[in-house]
């Protein structure tokens, strides 16, 4: 088998040669496969691509600028591609014939035609003595001349995918189409029988469907919605909101209520309230009917802008216009999704604005502080307009409990919110999926954040006790890195904040696993340790973050080579939560960079004080 595979090489071989004895079986197969493919590409390339180095035109004829001999041989064997000849390499011929001074023969053959040119080394030297040596031109195949030009200093190497075998002028001869006999095709004659099972045994590998490199033009409104979901959820990196709006505007005939609701929801999550308002206006101007989802998004937009009175007036106007469903008595009913939006409160989002703009400074909230009396009025209005069809407690979605507990805590009813949470955790099934478990954890986070104790260790101890008491009520509840991050934020005004945070992180890791230690938690512990002056903890965390960063870089490189992260192929796409679409790796990296600058400044101050103390002594 190795000797039969060596027929593909353009070197003289025999059973007693050193080359055959030095090459292994696997190396021989690899080299033979590569040589067979190169011969196939050369067979389908035009004649201009077959011109070799060292040949130039002098006076209308072709002469060899160096003493080169081209030998063409017919390569027998099962992989022979018809009547195609392959020359020996330039380096092998030149090194072998160097110093002989014999007549060199140059033979050019293509598709059965040949032209021989006989020159000697002395004649070539006389012809080239008074000739200007022109720089050799690189010729590409005719199939590749339409490719974009590269940098003039960089040579373009045509890849295998650039060749289109159907566009070649190559026509097979009758000798190429005949089927070889079984003896010449049997490549496993010389393979030992004990290795047949290793070669012929099929290996089962997981098949991964390739992702499309481009999106097809949508033919209906469903295809447009699926393309938008693909651009938001699947494509990496995800497109920005203006790019999604431009893509949606390219197909005005396929606009639908679902496509507008998707973009409005994404605009509100991006805190792009003017864009959401404009999309709602375009939806009404185009005559597309609205649904309950559209009404809910309009109420959410008002609530996010701290305009709860406008949201309540909008819902009352919908009831007067009979746009909402009716109850059993024929009166306008309050849908549960809209009612839950009225129970929510605006998020206190920090903004970075300069003092010249007249807005909030860095570290201040862009939303006015909460007023307990206003939330009490809001709670009374919501309680007096409940939906007629409320599910029982064990069938209530966790998001509804989250909205109600949030409103009760901001209205000052902490005991009622705690009683509702405990009753709900005892009533729901003992096994929860990941989505419901995360929403239930958000309810626990509300109780931890609204602790009545003062800041520092008292507030930290109270939040830790509430967290453990609520987690014991359900076996499926497990803390996440967000839980640890929220708990450690209450140690900012503690005296031994770094030491307590380091011990608490070790306790969480030993009980619930290392997945609770993400970059955000490590940054919070490092900040608290730097505040306390525990530089030993800071150095340990820096080494951990450096190792995690290198592992993440290797993982991303592996995913890019494989074509992206492994995801189950689905025919239909759905909306993903914003934490999965935008993981905020860039923001966390920027915050880590600022924290490292603080570490360097602290170390510089320590060295300066140490040098000053040493000089005084």
Automatic annotation (TrEMBL):
<feature type="compositionally biased region" description="Basic and acidic residues">
    <location>
        <begin position="140"/>
        <end position="149"/>
    </location>
</feature>
<feature type="compositionally biased region" description="Basic residues">
    <location>
        <begin position="127"/>
        <end position="139"/>
    </location>
</feature>
<protein>
    <recommendedName>
        <fullName>Pentatricopeptide repeat protein</fullName>
    </recommendedName>
</protein>
<feature type="region of interest" description="Disordered">
    <location>
        <begin position="119"/>
        <end position="149"/>
    </location>
</feature>
<feature type="region of interest" description="Disordered">
    <location>
        <begin position="350"/>
        <end position="370"/>
    </location>
</feature>
